[in-house]
Design goal:
eight-stranded mixed sheet, Rossmann fold, alpha/beta, ProC C-terminal domain-like fold, 282 residues, Pyrroline-COOH_reductase, EC 1.5.1.2, NADP, amino-acid biosynthesis
Length: 282
């Protein structure tokens, strides 16, 4: 059991919903040392539960959302935003004041969740991203004022099992988290697609271009993480010789306003997130 999962050793963790994100998080918890018998999962259809049960035979599975809510200390609401109200209806009359409810649904606010679960319910909003499926996720977290310090640490441990978690103290910033990391993998995929296509058109075999682009992205990300006290701009300057090939490429990107394009893309994502949140919270 890892040190962070040690925080959950006496806790029960439940999942409402058994989709890819739920399966990834519970898989990460089990891999980190949390016993499968400490985890409860509910889902309307049998197929996903059977697949999880086959992989983790001692996992507790059910079609009854209320059974999960009644048995756990940490309740992950891993359903689509438009299905949140229906899923929570099954346990709306329970006293969840000692249960930390953790929403994985984009845009559903703490106010909406407490309206569904009760004003005294500790609520955490999370925004994991798809690399969580392979243990490289980035998850933004926000807690309401009912969440205790112990529950915050345990929530961090849950998402650290599939990557890295970071708290924000202003709920409005969850839209920015969505723009930067929730939607972020697709931004990097587009850049990598462009690099690979450019490499192919300049003569590289597709496999070679793809391998070089992926390893370069991985290496650049690792350098940023391993040099936390250095500006990313300094890392860029360190590998840019005046008049060299890298400088020529960067001049082209800057002349075509790449930083402004990225800023506009993030602003568009934040705007759309707020629009979707209004729909989800009606």
């Amino acid at each position: 059991m890892t040190d962070s999962i040690e925080l959950l050793k006496n806790a029960k963790v439940g999942f409402i919903g058994a989709g890819n994100m739920a399966a990834s998080i519970l898989g990460g918890l089990i891999q980190s040392g949390l016993p499968a018998e400490s985890i409860f999962v509910s889902n309307p259809s049998a197929g996903k539960l059977e697949a999880l049960k086959e992989k983790h035979p001692t996992l507790n599975t059910t079609h009854d959302n209320a059974e999960v809510a009644n048995n756990v200390d940490y309740l992950l609401l891993a359903v689509k935003p438009q299905k949140m109200a229906l899923a929570c209806d099954d346990f709306k009359d329970m006293d969840l004041s000692k249960t930390c409810a953790i929403s994985v649904a984009a845009g559903v606010t703490c106010e909406t969740l407490t309206n569904l679960l009760g004003d005294d319910t500790p609520v955490v909003r999370s925004m994991p991203n798809t690399p969580s499926l392979i243990g490289y996720g980035a998850t933004g977290l926000f807690a309401n004022d009912k969440v205790t310090a112990e529950q915050r640490e345990a929530t961090s441990a849950i998402f650290d099992a599939v990557g890295k978690s970071i708290w924000v103290e202003d709920e409005d910033l969850m839209d920015v988290v969505t723009a930067v990391s929730g939607s972020g993998p697709a931004h990097y995929f587009l850049f990598m697609e462009s690099v690979v296509q450019g490499g192919i058109e300049l003569g590289l075999p597709e496999h070679t271009a793809r391998e070089l682009a992926a390893q370069t992205a991985l290496g650049a990300a690792a350098m940023v993480q391993q040099n936390g006290d250095m500006e990313i701009g300094q890392l860029r300057r360190n590998v840019t010789s005046p008049g060299g090939t890298t400088a020529a490429a960067l001049d082209t990107l800057n002349d075509n306003h790449l930083p402004d394009i990225v800023k506009k893309a993030l602003q568009a994502s934040v705007k759309r997130g707020k629009e979707l949140a209004e729909i989800a919270n009606k």
